[in-house]
Amino acid sequence: MSKYDYDLFVIGAGSGGVRAARVSSSYGAKVAIAEEYRVGGTCVIRGCVPKKLLVYGSHFSEELEDGKNFGWTWENPKFDWIKLRDHILSDVDRLNNAYTDTLNSHDVEIILERAEIVGPHEIKLASGKTVTAKYILVAVGAWPAVAEFPGSEHMLTSNDMFHLENLPETVIVSGGGYIANEFAGIFNGLGSNVTLVNRSDVILRGYDESLRDRLIQISTAKGINIKLNCTFDKIEKRDDGALDVYMNGDNPVRADVVLAATGRRPKTDGLGLENAGVETNDYGAIKVDEYSRTNVDSIYAVGDVTDRVQLTPVAIREGQAFAETVFNDTPKTVDYDCIPSAVFSQPPIASVGLTESEARKKYGDVKIYSSDFRAMRNVFADRPERSLYKMIVEVTSEKILGLHMIGPDAPEILQAAAVAVKAGLTKQAFDDTIALHPSMAEELVLLK
Fold first, then answer.
1. Are residues 269 and 410 in the same domain?
2. Do 106 and 99 meet the contact criterion of CB atoms below 8 Å apart?
3. Pick from 67, 76, 250, 251: most CB atoms within 10 A?
4. pTM higher than the cut 0.70
């Protein structure tokens, strides 16, 4: 008999933890997983899934308007925030149950308590019970970061935005990353007056410059007020619940909601990592090797809690690789090269590979192919919004180094194109492919 209660104890039932738990169990391991809130993690419960549903809901304001040129009329259309909010939360319930059923069907013991590490093989539960495991996997994810300044306690985070009692009339979004731009687009589409405040002059750092500039142009045209090189001085709450927001030494601006969307930090506080001697970096992220192992041989970590890439599909791959390595005697690592990503702004951005500046820095001279166009639907709807597709190519080999898009359905189009970039195909391979007409995607094989 094993001297441990479990072969594997997973802390955190998000995407990475759930995958690692169920696959490890399928290989014969005795597995338990602890979750202090709900099964499914950030993406399912308070992140990409409910946020994408909000994005869908916010599109209808433009679609109803555009429909007039397609022969449709609507009498007094109205938006009901409570109906959308509650329907999204009910879908979150469905997903929570689905993830729970998956773990149960794979004989993974679910412990709905907070867990803390007390040693290399020991975990203490909130109930006071202590259990042991041969291996511990930390998969607790990350948590919204909120800057500290007078009144910052009045700010909400992305976690809170799915539970608002009313649709806010005025929203100020602090940040310039994907979460900030997505929520700015959502509430602008739903009819709120939105201001995006960023402390630097660069939004969406890490994305291609051309796409960032295009999103600013389009967002401004849609009515989003963008304030760059702007910082918060203080926030004061009025008796009626509204907020007076002071920025850059100017007079206060009234807001119903101020959203802190300035990034996420690994959720390692109070986890007890120091009890086992697990090393973290300056931001609290757990340091791991290529096999997701920490400096303590029995403790591993995957997903947003590590110092790697904070994306749900990456966490899933890491969880799978962990299970294969530890419980299937098949060492696996994750390839972090050419990971596609998307920003569900309005319009959305999709990207894979090197940006133009990154490619020039690494390769020197590169070729740039692009298409700047209005989607057929926008032309017919008399909407001026233009899409931009951009391909970065290495000069001598013609290998595609990066592909970047902003426009309707860009993420849906890029997923397939990312396979070609990952495979190392050349521009000629795209040129040799016959266009699928009429479509926006055909621009990819017509780039000049």
1. no
2. no
3. 67
4. yes
Whether 248 and 215 map to the same domain: the answer is yes
- Our CA dihedral for 161, 167, 170, 175, rounded to 10 degrees, sits at 20
DSSP for 378-391?
Answer: HHHTT----EEEEE
Annotated catalytic residue: which of 106, 121, 163, 437?
Answer: 437
Q: Are strands 109-111 and 115-119 parallel, antiparallel or unpaired?
A: unpaired
For residues 373 and 285, membership in a common domain is answered with no
H-helix segments, 106-208: 178-189
For residue 335, being part of any structural domain is answered with no
Could you identify the residue written with the tokens 């979750």? 35
User: Domain of 357?
Assistant: 347-445
Residues 286-303 pLDDT 10s: 999 999 999 999 999 999
* Spatial contact of 343 and 321, defined as CB atoms under 8 Å apart: no
Residue 2's pLDDT is 75
Helix (H) or strand (E) holding 360: helix 356-363
Element housing 102 (H / E):
helix 81-105
Same domain, 114 and 43: yes
- Res 388: pLDDT: 98
Report the pLDDT value the prediction gives residue 99, as an integer from 0 to 100: 95
Domain count of the fold of the chain: 3
- CATH of residue 21's domain is 3.50.50.60
Distances (CA, A) of 56 to 220, 284, 341: 20, 34, 18
The answer to whether position 139 is within a domain reads yes
Answer yes or no: do 219 and 112 share one domain. no
- Partnered with residue 342 across adjacent β-strands are 350
Contact 172, 257 (CB under 8 A): yes
Q: Is 341 inside a domain boundary?
A: no
pLDDT of residue 1: 56
Q: Identify whether 121 is a catalytic site residue.
A: no
Question: What token pair was written down for 166?
Answer: 């009313």
Burial of residue 428 (CB within 10 Å: 0-12, 13-18, 19+) is exposed
pLDDT of residue 307: 87
Q: Determine how β-strand 115-119 pairs with β-strand 122-125.
A: antiparallel
Parts of the chain with a pLDDT under 70: 1
- Looking at the structure, do residues 282 and 387 belong to the same domain, yes or no? no
